[in-house]
Design goal:
By secondary structure, this protein is an alpha/beta fold. The chain has helices at about 1-10, 25-35, 70-80, 85-95, 110-120, 155, 175-180, 185-190, 205-210, 255-270, 275-285, 310-320, 345-350, 360-370, 380-390, 415-425; strands spanning about 15-20, 40-45, 60-65, 85, 100-105, 125-130, 145-150, 165-170, 200-205, 220-225, 230-235, 235-240, 240-245, 295-300, 300-305, 325-330, 350-355, 375-380, 400.
């Protein structure tokens, strides 16, 4: 491995390597470098303020995704010649089996997990992680035949040697604009996943993704709105003219999960997985926690936890997955998103909305700009949310927690938010 690292990144015992960030990713990088007998130091802004002296002599910076590259002391070091290397770079350089890369504003955890299940159903030894679960370097295993990596825009923007055997950008919508400045920069960061010469898998229902087509590369497409290589027709998942499985056999809430399944099927096909075995895995697939997860049917009401919907695009996808109108629970920390984009979809797909958190007033203001009226209620916590929802709903309704916002204004994380929603439902009198 040392020879590969020297060849790819000029990493030697004489290099001055600084690992920036001591969280999950930073720890996995430190363990990897230690195993390779490469000297390094670690820094973390939560323990000591970064100064220009901190990075003055650095030859290589391995910067965790949670740290912005625009941080002045880091930007200065990079401009002065320090090489930027990511944990994904290190991983890709030393792996010699196919890597499948999955990114997008929404759905990437679901598709990554689906692919892992599909590969196992085909009898393959597979590592699944990246931005989801285990950091990439912790997945390294001589027995692995495939690696399925969920990759965030922050991981991709600092990666330079990824050459995935197959990769997809599932969709693009406003997210993390506090770090990427605008949607175009965000899309460019995502497009890094197509570096190399592997198979490109494109969502042709998303204009920005469809525009990433490279005519020189083998490409597979998927769609739930039009004919593509993998598409939805007559409530069947199709490949060319062949029915793969009935949508009714996919045990997930919402039509957007049909798009996720089609993306997974396209990626699996690209790397030679058996379509029958892949469909068998899909039929047994369980929703991820806090992602369109049916909590219960209590008092005749369907309660669905989509707390992982921390941006507008995820909330819109969840709402558009329903044919009937739902009672939406939304709000939290809006991350500078334009809530005017969400308002028309709420009107079209929600019979009422219950607003929570710091930026609830922004969502209400956006709704008030519409000529139509959607009843809006405010709640201080999840017990009040559930009490209001129980009062305004009737038997057969769906109450959907899909906040379109981050959770840190009120909760430890989106998991805590979803768990408190579930606990409040559990506590609801029968």
């Amino acid at each position: 491995m040392k020879n590969i690292l020297k060849e790819k990144f000029d990493l030697t015992a004489e290099s001055k390597i600084i690992v920036v960030g001591e969280g999950i990713t930073g720890t996995s990088v430190a363990n990897f470098l230690q195993a390779q007998d490469l000297p390094f130091s670690t820094v973390d802004s939560r323990k000591a303020t970064f100064t220009f002296e901190t990075f003055k002599d650095a030859t290589h910076l391995i910067i965790s995704p949670g740290v912005a590259l625009s941080e002045p002391t880091i930007a200065t070091a990079l401009n002065s010649g320090a090489k930027l290397v990511s944990d994904i770079d290190l991983f890709a350089a030393v792996v010699n089996v196919p890597i499948i890369g999955i990114t997008g504003a929404n759905g990437k955890s679901t598709v990554t997990t689906m692919l892992g299940d599909m590969a196992r159903a085909c009898g393959k030894n597979v590592g699944v992680g990246g931005n989801l679960g285990k950091p990439a370097l912790d997945l390294l295993d001589d027995a692995a035949e495939f690696y399925m990596l969920e990759l965030s825009s922050f991981q991709l923007e600092r990666s330079h040697v990824l050459n995935a055997a197959a990769a997809t950008v599932l969709n693009i919508s406003a997210d993390h604009l506090d770090r990427h400045d605008d949607l175009e920069n965000y899309a460019q960061a995502k497009q890094v996943i197509f570096s190399g010469d592997g198979v490109i898998v494109l969502n042709v229902d998303d204009e920005m993704v469809a525009a990433m087509r490279d005519e020189s590369r083998k490409t597979l497409t998927f769609s739930i709105k039009q004919k593509a290589d993998f598409y939805l027709a007559d409530n069947n998942l199709m490949h060319d003219e062949n029915v793969l499985m009935s949508l009714a056999d996919l045990p997930l809430e919402g039509k957007h999960n049909a798009a996720n399944a089609l993306a997974a099927l396209a990626l699996g096909t690209a790397v030679g997985l058996d379509s029958v075995k892949m469909c068998e895995a899909l039929q047994k697939f369980k929703a991820l926690h806090h992602r369109m997860e049916k909590v219960s049917t209590k008092n005749g009401i369907n309660w669905v936890n989509d707390s992982k919907a921390t941006n507008i695009g995820a909330c819109i996808a969840a709402l558009e997955g329903y044919d009937e109108k739902v009672i939406l629970v939304a709000g939290g920390e809006g991350k500078g998103q334009d809530m005017n984009e969400l308002a028309p979809v709420i009107f079209a797909k929600a019979k009422a909305v219950i607003l929570i958190g710091k930026d609830a007033p922004q969502i209400e203001a956006a709704l008030n700009l519409l000529s139509e009226i959607v009843p809006a209620y405010h709640a201080q916590d999840m017990r009040e949310v559930v009490a209001i929802a129980a009062h305004v709903s009737k038997i057969g309704d769906t109450v959907l927690l899909s906040p379109a916002c981050a959770s840190l204004d009120q909760y430890k994380n989106y998991q805590d938010r979803g768990n408190q929603f579930a606990a409040a439902i559990e506590a609801l009198p029968a």
